[in-house]
Design a protein that fits this description.
The chain is an alpha/beta fold. It contains 12 helices and 15 strands. β12, α11 and β13 form a beta-alpha-beta unit. The structure holds iron/sulfur cluster. The site of iron/sulfur cluster has 13 residues, from α11. One of its GO terms (molecular function) is 4-hydroxy-3-methylbut-2-en-1-yl diphosphate synthase activity (ferredoxin). This is 4-hydroxy-3-methylbut-2-en-1-yl diphosphate synthase (flavodoxin).
Length: 357
């Protein structure tokens, strides 16, 4: 699949955003940032789930002062989400933050913006400009009448202009909207006009189920145009779920390196095994596998192996047993009670083969 790589590479800690075909997964903590213990715990859970960069809210000085303490305990780059207050940005930068999310046009007087830019430059810290359809500048809303993709890009260009005037170019841009069409249009227009990497998001998308569907629809449309260097799924749910959804979405587009994928049949009256339970168990198991393996779980042997030819390894239910197959060829029969364990062993073997390649 084509993926837009001609963007400026921007480093966030040791992770590069843009300038390649990777899409970096981000999420945001729910804890109060000044509660260092809770925030570190949450960040470490997110990291374990595959989150590559974590953002924390930085609404006050207590939060900004917690940053160096949090940084000591985590292994992923940390981003501070700041609105308006340049002193919080300076404190976060001083505390070793890896990126700040702030709109320079909202900081206020020019000297305040200059101070933030100078501090960020000195430490090599990038900034994300976050345009949100729900909070566009008044003059842009007056010009277009309501939030439009053109207005969102105009807002992004306005904030970018402020940073470029100060010779600052380590910029990442997001253009979030909760309306899928609006977000898609905004990102497409931005990709034509903005050389900086784009951070994807469908904001306020909803709960775990509805938000996952909406995010997949919106971000899927944007990713299918080859757009996006980093992303955050926004759900009213445990942020670990955001990471899981992001990983799965990237897998669907072949954009997740070293991740295993599950193919499972939709079930029908021919089913011979407890497929739903098995599929869930196998899905959980492969979430930890770091190899591009396709694993298939099928309810019966009638169409099973044929339907899963593209799978590397799989199992198809038969009466009282399972047929284990590799690349569509049956390799052996296993009793029903042990077939999931046998499949897991084969998955591990394949993962090891990939590792040694
Ligand atoms: Fe039905 Fe078998 Fe196909 Fe599953 S694999 S949908 S059980 S025919």
């Amino acid at each position: 699949m084509y993926h837009r790589t001609q963007t400026r590479p921007v480093k966030v800690g040791d992770i590069q955003i843009g300038g390649n075909d990777q899409v970096v997964i981000q999420s945001m903590t729910m804890s109060k940032t000044h509660d260092v213990k809770a925030t570190v715990e949450e960040i470490n859970r997110l990291t374990e789930a595959g989150c590559q960069i974590v953002r924390v809210a930085c609404p006050d000085m207590r939060a900004a002062e917690a940053i160096p303490l949090i940084k000591k305990e985590i292994t992923v780059p940390l981003v501070a989400d700041i609105h308006f207050d340049y002193r919080l940005a300076l404190k976060a930068i001083e505390g070793g933050i890896d990126k700040i999310r702030i709109n320079p046009g909202n900081i206020g007087r020019r000297e305040k913006v200059e101070q933030v830019v100078k501090a960020a430059k000195e430490r090599g810290i990038p900034m994300r400009i976050g345009v949100n359809a729900g909070s566009l500048e008044k003059r842009i809303l007056e010009k277009y009448g309501y939030p439009t993709a053109e207005g969102m890009v105009e807002s992004a260009l306005y904030h970018i202009g402020i940073l470029e005037d100060l010779d600052f170019h380590d910029i990442i841009v997001s253009l979030k909207a909760s309306d899928v069409h609006l977000a898609t249009e905004a990102y497409k227009k931005a990709a034509e006009q903005i050389q900086y990497p784009l951070h994807l998001g469908i904001t306020e998308s909803g709960t775990l189920f509805s938000g996952t569907v909406k995010s997949a629809a919106g971000m899927g449309a944007i990713l299918s145009h080859g757009i996006g260097s980093t992303m955050r799924i926004s759900l009213s749910a445990d942020p670990v779920e955001e990471v899981k959804v992001a990983r799965e979405l990237l897998k669907s587009f072949g954009l997740a390196a070293n991740a295993a994928t599950l193919i499972s049949c939709p079930t029908c009256g021919r089913i011979e095994i407890d497929l739903i339970k098995i599929a869930n168990e196998v899905e959980e198991y492969i979430s930890q596998i770091k190899a591009p393996i396709k694993v298939s779980v099928l309810g019966c042997a009638v169409n099973g192996p044929g339907e899963a030819k593209e799978a590397d390894i799989g199992i198809a239910g038969a009466r009282g047993e399972g047929l284990l197959f590799r690349h569509g060829e049956i390799i052996r029969k296993v009793p029903e009670e042990t077939m999931v364990d046998e499949l897991k062993k084969e998955i591990d073997k394949l993962a090891e083969e990939y590792r040694l390649k």
